[in-house]
Amino acid sequence: MGWAAVTAVVLAATPVFVTRGDVTPEAALRTEAEATWRALEARYVAEAGGAPARAPATVLLKRGETLLPSRNGQGRPGVVELRQDSAGVLDVRLRVALRHELAHQLLWWACPASAEDRLFHEAFALAVSGELAEWREAPYQSLASASVELARSPDVDTPRARRALARVLNEDAGFPRALTRRLRRCQEGTRWTVPLSVGELAGHAERSVAQATVVLSRHSGEVLFSEGAFRTAMPYGSTLKPFVVAGSTAAPPVLAPRAEVAEWMCGERMPERMDVRTALLRSCNGYFLDWEGKGSAPRAFGAWGAVLSAVGLSSEPLDMADAIGLRATLSLSPWGLAQAYRLLAEARPDVLTWLADNAARGTLSELPASRDYAGVATKTGTVRDEESRPVLGWIVAVDADLVAVVARPGKMPRAFADEVPRLLARVRSQHAGLEAARVQVLGLVSPDSVEARCLGAGFVLEDGTPRAVSGDFTKLEPWVKKGGAVCLGSPWRVRFPELPAGRDYAGVLTWSPPPPYAPPAGVPTSPTALKARKGSAYVFRTTRLQYTAGVVTAEDAALKGEARVALARVVAHNERHADERHPGRPLCDTTHCQSFQGTVRIAPEDARALRLPALRWREWLTFSKGGQEPWTQTRPRAQVESLLGRGVTAVRFAEGRVHYLRTRNEGGAVFDAPESLPCEVLRSTLKLPACPRSAAFEDARVTFQGQGQGHGEGLDVEAAKASGAPQEQLLEAAYGAR
């Protein structure tokens, strides 16, 4: 239909706009509303292919008395409420709000069937009100994070949700094609049975299947390998069946197979009764459909529906056929699928144990590659066309450290089963230190002062059930006391009063209170040292490589070359000797163990260090910043004597200890007795840069002199930097005599 014809159609379809004097000037407001309506209806007619037969109703334009601060307008059928900051002025914000709210009025008139579809209404209003250009100027937001935000706010009633919706709408250069299709359905009178989804709005349904591969770390969540369309949402086949099982709050049934039903054709030698474990391994559609028929199956994946929605599931399944991919109506990206399986592996190790049998007695059994899947949990999926030909094959593989998702167009999973073990081996050869490392973190701060935020999709696993957490900074302690806290698609951002900006932790946070700690008798210990030696209730799991890089960076962020390789090898070695610092528990993140301040960028030297063989020493290896820079510091004599005792003389420092004579009076006899303490006790208590080389006692003070920083034992990092020697020589010089 040409625009001249469109204009002729709409001239007689403008509603009567009524004002009552509380938004002024009234005449100008009505004129603005009439012009806006004509433009909106012209857009509707152009996209829908025609105009509604009935005339629009009267619309009241009034001042909004109950508008939230974040809103400039709101409405209901027949009523538009506006914010006017200055009487008699129709400013830009008011005009935009008017256009936005009149777009809703037009849909309530022209497309009443969509009245409950909030996403459709808000998408149309944003698309036609002129607001998108403003949103394009906002900071960049990924499409994945926009989808997560819209899943959190399905009513699209917050500025963050509208920003996310604008990001999705901006995927289209012109008017969104998904809205055009929906408007045509309005005009045709089609029933509005399925609400608009983010996937549909972003054009997911129009995208063809594609080859894709992605591998994540189970521990840190980082993407270790990717190729192809791994961010593209595609029909997922049977890969989400484990989430149906995980979402069930009741024990899944044991069912009798029905041989006459095609969906029960699930392999040879069918058992007389099938349990859920066998149904998963055989990927038996009939079992899941009959489970739904009994009325006890979870709807829309139960608690796991929120997880799948957060990682990009195109919309909520209407029934079991949607959920298990029997109908290819929904889609999910390989990246989203990998993220979901990462959380499933954390929450439901029992389900992963079942899937570990897949290569022995499931859909990947009796293949030449089957034996290569030892220790790997797998789930397959196949998307078929109307003639049952494979359109897209999937394999999800999860081992102790990795989650891999492989999608291949036009292939059954069994046809490319040999690729996956090779993929896992290749990733391990390219990335050292992928195994788990655990560390007690944040032990020097009060547990109830720690807050965390996930910019991806955050979940707490409460008895194996995922519970979504707020995207804003929230107290961490109540979360992790319920279960492990996992942030999908992003590191945790953790802050506390002493570090308001916070720092990143890419991994899993759990709660494990340490046992009581009593310092050795007679050894003075500062409150800070007591906290460090006790440990923390917060336990963080990441990869050994991420942990090693974090410690090295905390020690010296500028460290490079052979010295960094040497230190990284020592750090990784000590991670395997945690019992020497905290028996039966992980290392702490303080200098009592090795300082760790969260996730950092990995340096090439860190990765190189973890590819090298394990060090030959079998005990904890000390290191310090060291160096040759001289220093002089004074401390009150009373503070020093509170540590060493009164009447101290002949103080000297050797072999990592402070030696001194202390005057004693026993049984009337006065004598000098030799005593000593670890120099690290004196250094840490008095907060000296390093173990001193000398101490001069004066009337009311003690002057210490030394050089470098740290306890001065083991690897001297500054000296290693200055030497330029190969890392092997540096390590032998530091520890060879042990």
Automatic annotation (TrEMBL):
Source taxon at top rank: Bacteria
InterPro entries: Beta-lactam/transpept-like
Name of the molecule in the record: Uncharacterized protein
Species of the source: Cystobacter fuscus
